[in-house]
Amino acid sequence: MTLFHRRGYDAVGVAELAEAIGVNPPSLYAAFGSKKGLFERALERYQESGGGFVARTLAEEGNLAELIGRVFLRAAETYSAADSLPGCLVLDSTRNCSDPEIRAVTDALRAEGREHIRRRIAREFPRAAEVLTDYVLVTLSGLSAAARDGMDPAALRRSAQIAADGFAAQLGGKG
Amino acid sequence: MTLFHRRGYDAVGVAELAEAIGVNPPSLYAAFGSKKGLFERALERYQESGGGFVARTLAEEGNLAELIGRVFLRAAETYSAADSLPGCLVLDSTRNCSDPEIRAVTDALRAEGREHIRRRIAREFPRAAEVLTDYVLVTLSGLSAAARDGMDPAALRRSAQIAADGFAAQLGGKG
DNA sequence: GAAAATTTTTAGTGGTCACTACATATGTCT
DNA sequence: AGACATATGTAGTGACCACTAAAAATTTTC
User: Fold this and answer.
1) Burial (CB count <10 Å: 0-12, 13-18, 19+), residue A5
2) Any atom of strand D under 7 A from CB of A125?
3) Does the distance separating the beta carbons of A166 and B165 come in below 8 Å?
4) A13 CA – D16 C1', rounded, Å
5) Residue A23 Cα, gap to closest chain B Cα (Å)
6) What residue ranges of chain B have pLDDT lower than 70?
7) Please, which residues have CB within 8 angstroms of residue B25's CB and are 6 or more apart in sequence?
8) How far apart are CA B112 and CA A3, in angstroms?
9) pLDDT at residue A44, rounded to an integer
């Protein structure tokens, strides 16, 4: 999981993955079937560990502006955590990936995440749900990309706060 | 340039690039020295054609909020133009690239762009320049990434508008 | 303890990568 | 025309890719 996160799907080789796990390539194929199978397993682990913070945050108590603000701030923290790796595995590990099947895997996860966000927004602002959801996705993608480009945690957090303020202001106008 | 933009630096091969230009690989090496040399030339062309819109927009007349709003909207249009390719060549073509020298090339261009933005913001809001610049970078990265993930032009433009409103609101608070 | 099933290791499969040595064709100048 | 510089095409370099067949070691079962 760490290797996929750090270097992206294409750039990491099966031999390297096998060595990181501590087995030889054939054992890896026996256990996961293919590099794709291992990647899917890594994505599951990621969602269970820290990557699933969006869905978890949206299930908390609070009004919409608070929740989205929390999502942005947690994204900034998660994507630039010192003990972790920059950016989001789902959003960024298959960028410029040459295998369309692999892209489809992360595309599906992204669509799932989008639907979570859209439904929560629609509960309070059904008419503006699509627009606001797109804005949230753009912001999360931006936070992940900026973290990957080396932006430091404090700066990322401040940017997330500005985006959260912007989101809240939109609700004020539409509500 | 088109191939690098569509598929990313690593995923496109020299043989393919040579065929697209209409020559054989040795001629390509005679003209550009290496794949890296060709990529650098492609980046220059990109900045001259459509990719340099940030610097050009910041040189226009208008107050800061107007200019940044224009930058966001032009980013949304440029990154999702129907006759072009999704996203930004500088921001996204070396994501998950395995060659650190190549990453360094786009990193330098990004730093240059950041400095353009920071200087223009500092002219009117020197104290908040760093914070606001980071927010602009996060937003541009997000617009490019979302375009690459297939967000449609209208949705991207609406998200850019929300981000522009958020930026203007920050100026109101700090001004 | 021997046979069978399972796992691990070794060693390779064909394919593609960036890149290049060398032969061939082309153009230029006298 | 003939000598020379330049550009192109052919063909191949070793290295790495995902993946796997078969041998060796291990564990399980009777």
Assistant:
1) buried
2) no
3) yes
4) 9
5) 24
6) 173-175
7) B14, B15, B18
8) 30
9) 95
